[in-house]
Amino acid sequence: MIFNNFKIKFFIRILILALAILALVYSILILNSFIRSLFAFAFCILSISELLKFTNKTNKDFNSFLNALIYEDFTNLYSKSKIRESNVYELFNKLNEKYRKIAFEKEVQHAFLQTIVKHINIGIIVLDKENKVVLINSFLLELLKANTINTLDELGQKSILLKNEIEGISINKPKLLELTLYGELFRLSINSSSFKLEGNQYKLVSIQDINMELDEQEISSWQKLIRVLTHEIMNSVTPISSLSSSLNNLLIKAISENKVDSKHLEYLSKGLNAVQDRSEGLIKFTEAYKKLTQIKHPEFTKVNVKKLFESIVLLHKAKIEEHKILINISVSNDANLLADKLMLEQVLINLVNNSIQAIENLDKPQVNLKCFEEKGRISIQVIDNGKGIDEDKIDKIFIPFFTTKDQGSGIGLSFARQVMRLHKGSINVKSVPEETIFTIKF
In 332-411, which residue ranges form alpha helices assigned H by DSSP? Predict the structure, then answer.
């Protein structure tokens, strides 16, 4: 065992002390010898002194070892002579080595995490409850063109808007922020979380520059919109141009030959009517575009979802009865929400109308209207059992003027998405054969 040597040495010193005491008692009581008693007494004193010196030395070494652990000093190693003296020093050395290894691994891990935080392309700032900066990485310092920032107030000297956003951001609720720094526009995504460490509360805020991602998305959206606009305009302009050219050539030829008769006039009249029809179609297209870009700001009121569903069904009653469509309404906890009633009603009318058109030729057409609350958000779903939306078209259906229907304007779903953005919500679609689900979230 580790303490065997210590026990043996301690037992030997106790035995010597006992013998010295026995000799002293024997000299005094039996021999009645003053000189021998004096020597025995001196021997007792020496034995006690040696015992105290031995125990104090071990205690001193033990205290020294504990203090070294407390102050994380793992350089104090005991020599082989000490180990031979007592195996307890070998245990001290092993513990020293163990804690030194743990401390080294901790330092390596800390350096590793510091390197990652320093080099990632996302701004990181950690604040304590007094808004003092515990950690800030290079990306954010470079963004703010600062060497160091120690408090949130110092950050405010670089950008008061960013300071206010960091100070007021809710936990786990990302925000988008447009920020101008030193004449350059940044579009940032800001998120935050909180954590406790050694009893102290901290707030971690991540700041990501999403300029490139938004620019790519914006360019992609514009390209899609331009393709649709070009397609629609060319569908109207090409026949107008072709027909106008034919009518002009016919008129020139008739005048040059002096053969303007009723047949030519009838053909000219029909051609001009066709030009008028296509021109009116182009005007309607332009008006639809104007309508889409001039949506008014919502006026929020309390809306009962169940009553809203019933109103939508009533508006489509004729078509529902004509095509024998089964309508199911499901509303959890008689949900209410704050919204612009007219706008939301128009969105649902468009969605239900799309569903009816998708299922009107089925044997068992069905539309489900659902409302439920999930993770603190209210969701409304319009579900039909139609054939679904083709994969190559599902990413285009929210683009203005894109339509899969012969008589469609292509603004219904675009209007719905704009309305939901004005409500700080979203609209999404999921479609597989025999089930298409439009979900709007508030």
Answer: 341-359
CA–CA distance, 81 with 83 (Å, rounded to integer): 5
- Amino acid letter, 209: D
Say if residue 89 is exposed, middle or buried (CB neighbours under 10 Å; 0-12, 13-18, 19+). Answer: buried
Q: Which two tokens stand for residue 251?
A: 């008129």
What fold, for 301-441? Heat Shock Protein 90 (3.30.565)
Residue-averaged pLDDT of the chain: 76
For residue 433, pLDDT over 80 is answered with yes
Structure tokens at 181: 């720094």
Q: Is 20 a residue whose pLDDT tops 70?
A: yes
Three-class SS of residue 122?
coil
Q: What is the CA radius of gyration of the chain?
A: 44
Phi/psi for 374 (5° steps) reads -145, 125
Residue type, 189: S
Q: Is the four-CA dihedral 391, 394, 396, 400 of positive or negative sign?
A: positive
Residue 404 confidence (pLDDT) above 70 = no
How many CB atoms sit inside 10 A of residue 109's CB?
10
| Structure letter (DSSP) for residue 151 | B
Query: Region 39-53: what's the mean pLDDT?
Result: 78
Residue 402 confidence (pLDDT): 62
pLDDT digits (tens, 9 = 90+) for 229-252: 666 566 666 666 666 777 667 667
Instruction: Work out the average pLDDT over 272-281.
Output: 67
Q: Which residues of 3-40 are buried (b: 16+ CB within 10 A; e: fewer)?
A: eebbeeebeebeebbeebbebbeebeeeeeeeeebeeb
**pLDDT tier at 1, thresholds 50, 70, 90:** very low
Say how many C-beta atoms besides its own lie within 10 A of residue 212's C-beta.
Answer: 9
End-to-end CA distance of the chain: 70
Phi, psi (deg, nearest 5) at residue 409: -90, -25
Q: Of all helices (H) and strands (E), which one includes residue 432?
A: strand 426-432
Contact 326, 366 (CB under 8 A): yes
State which H helix or E strand residue 177 sits in. strand 175-181
Which run of H or of E encompasses 415?
A: helix 412-422
Q: Report the side by side order of strands in the sheet with 435-441.
A: 326-331, 366-374, 377-384, 435-441, 426-432
- Rounded Cα distance between 261 and 241, Å, is 24
Identify which of 52, 50, 43 has the alpha carbon closest to the alpha carbon of residue 25. Answer: 43
Longest dimension (CA), the chain: 172
Domain 120-209 has CATH 3.40.190.290: no
pLDDT for 246-270, tens place per residue? 766 766 776 676 766 666 667 667 7
